[in-house]
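Hello, quick one for you while I still have it in my head. A protein chain has come my way and I'm curious about its shape. Can you walk me through what the tokens say about the fold? No rush at all, and the record is pasted right below.
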Amino acid sequence: MKNVRLIYEKKDRMRFVSHLDMTRFMSRMIQKSKIPVWYTEGFNKHIYVTFALPLSLGFESNYEVMDFRFDDDNYPLSLALQALKGVFPPYIRIVDLIEPQMKAGEIAFADFEITFDTSDKGFEKKLEDFLNLAEIKVSKKSKKGAISEVDIAPKIKAFSITQGENTVLKITLPAGGKDNVNPQLVLSAMGEALPEYKICRGKLYNEKMEVFK
């Protein structure tokens, strides 16, 4: 039995698929590829799959990570990759299939690209001034349900803003089990109506800002 890690993009209509439904969908696609996967034991056998960092509903992603297992240690990754690419629909693009190098608990940061439907220079300036504030207080709910006021300004690892037909914010935020800042939480702290936008999560990193693999 060998652990393998699938890296893929989740785009378009798939951003509206819940985490639970995504688990079922990925299992069906793996079955369809006919690669030698390992099934859990017991009465209700199913393909073992686990996601490194589940994606928020409505978000797209350029770097989704899902682990599963081969029941044949000698089965070539290149052959499995080819089989998987042959069964997935266009809105799930398979990027790579590798042996895991890091544990999911090592994830510490994630890149996000937020595209606003505006080219207004005034909005760009407001966004930049807001993100440069020394203090950004928000109400954040803990895993136990307690709500507390948190300053997220020092949690913003990096950001940049570019403008063309749209205003595009690229921002790196804490992600994972130790700390997690949803980009929508950051935007809500602006306290004003925003242009329509969509969010795409990019690469994941460990504490050393090494790409999660």
Notes: The longest strand covers residues 60-70. The longest helix spans residues 19-33.
